[in-house]
Amino acid sequence: MTSMGRVRGVLIDRDGTVIRDVGYLRRSEQIEILPRVPEALQLLRQHGLKIVIVTNQSAVARGFLCEEELRQIHQELERQLARYVAFLDGIYYCPHHPTEGMEPYHVSCDCRKPNTGLARQAAAELNLDLGRSYVIGDQVSDVELAARIGAKGILLEDRRLGTEDYRPGSPVVSPQSTVSVVEDLWEAAQWIIRDLSHEAL
Fold this sequence. Notes:
Layout: E1 9-12, H1 37-46, E2 50-56, H2 67-83, E3 90-94, H3 117-126, E4 134-137, H4 140-149, E5 152-156, E6 179-182, H5 185-200
Parallel strand pairs: 1-2, 1-4, 2-3, 4-5, 5-6
Helix pairs in contact: 1-5
């Protein structure tokens, strides 16, 4: 528990972090939970952290699916995770795109990562202390979101990149970001638990 009763949260990207990135996921049958994801979610919850998915879903703006279909996909994802006794506290998505797609989704918004709208919505609804929370993802936008809300960023390593790509100031890691690079969500969860333990010393 933090100041004024607020709690820590873990804001997690969806595609490439929780489930396999298939491009524009349009159907529930395409959901493939990545290895060690349920164990990671269980570990984070055991330590009292709120867990939310925060995801850009411009497939809606592009007309590949509607918001109701996206909600059904997310419900199926939650059902599949529940089979492993792994649970989320919420899924927050941005359906917009600033330069492509159709109205009313073809718009510049405050919710598309790295903008902070989704994080602020999650914080308001779940009483999160964003400044003491964590952001996990496989994209630069996730790292930038962490920097903008004052959270600690954890970047999943892209094996297509070299070590130099993860140095501060590189296109992947901006100078103002506090970023740790790990292999997958399980390693990210372990990193967070170690970080919490160090703070408690």
